[in-house]
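Spend some time on the protein that follows and explain the fold to me:
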Amino acid sequence: MTVPPALVVVGRVIRPHGLRGEMRVQPETDFPERLEMLGQAVLVTDERSEAVRIEAVRRAGDAVLVKVAGIDTPEAVDPWRGAALAVPREMAAPLPEGRHYIFDILGMTVETDQGQVLGTVDEVIRTPGNDVYVVRGARELLVPAISSVVLRIDPTHRRIVIRPMPGMLEES
């Protein structure tokens, strides 16, 4: 699903919850507590997007239950299964210095500290230890987002400078 660049995905609709039209949403944010303050959002699928008013949000384990105005039955939630719950980019929480949103990393050019362009970040894989940037160019590379490899992220010039680990650039 393609989400417009003006929006930031904060969760995914998993399924209906209860009989009053609540949506069980899996947060996709480092700040899930901010979902409880949402007043408005956009539901996005491959087929459509719709601005919605949020009536209520409450935690339910590692998910949240979201009540959207005008969606009052489980059947009305069903078409939104798998939809992205997004907010305008300007509503995204500010990050500490040196931290970057995944949506900002995607599409950045990756080059070595010697100036060799390797490709662009096509995907970010979240792992318990660190993120991994999937870089696609002449071939696909997996770049661990650790300080010994990622030397600099330059959002202004949309580039990431890395020091490749031994063997990282060798053909397999």
Notes: The two ends are 32 Å apart (CA to CA). The mean pLDDT is 91. The chain is about 5% helix and 45% strand. The helical segments are 74-77, 102-105.
